[in-house]
Specification:
- By secondary structure, the chain is an all-alpha fold.
- It has eight helices and no strands.
- The termini are far apart.
Amino acid sequence: MTMPATLRDAAAALFMTVAAVPAMADTTEERRKRGEAVIRNLNHGQPQPVLEGMRREFPFLADATEAYALGDVWARPGLDDRTRQLAAVAAFAATGQTALMKLHAGYALNIGVPGDELKEIVYMVTVVGGFPRAIEASQALSQLFAERSAAPSGGEGSTP
């Protein structure tokens, strides 16, 4: 027996509303605070300079990034920080977003991912993103390694 279209549409709308309720249970401020905790965990307890710069010029975009991307998505259970960082590095490298790839590669280093594993991610990008994207990613990663080795503390510290 098939359900009439209007009843099916009403049931779908009800399901969508009910499914969205848990995400709406937290306030934006609670979600933003979760996002802030994610950044501080990945960045040796420090705020993220790019996000804070965005907050000065584009406060809504910064709050939305912190609340949704970090507080809702990044803070979800299911993957550890290491896996999330490797996935982010791979995705940004494969799509040519080398500035964001470099940022997340820095976070990966902060949480103990060895540089050789990040190089392996770049090698994998040749398969899914092509050689030009992998070469761009390798240049960004080399720049990050150079910045880290030139840092007074021998490569430790927050991500630029």
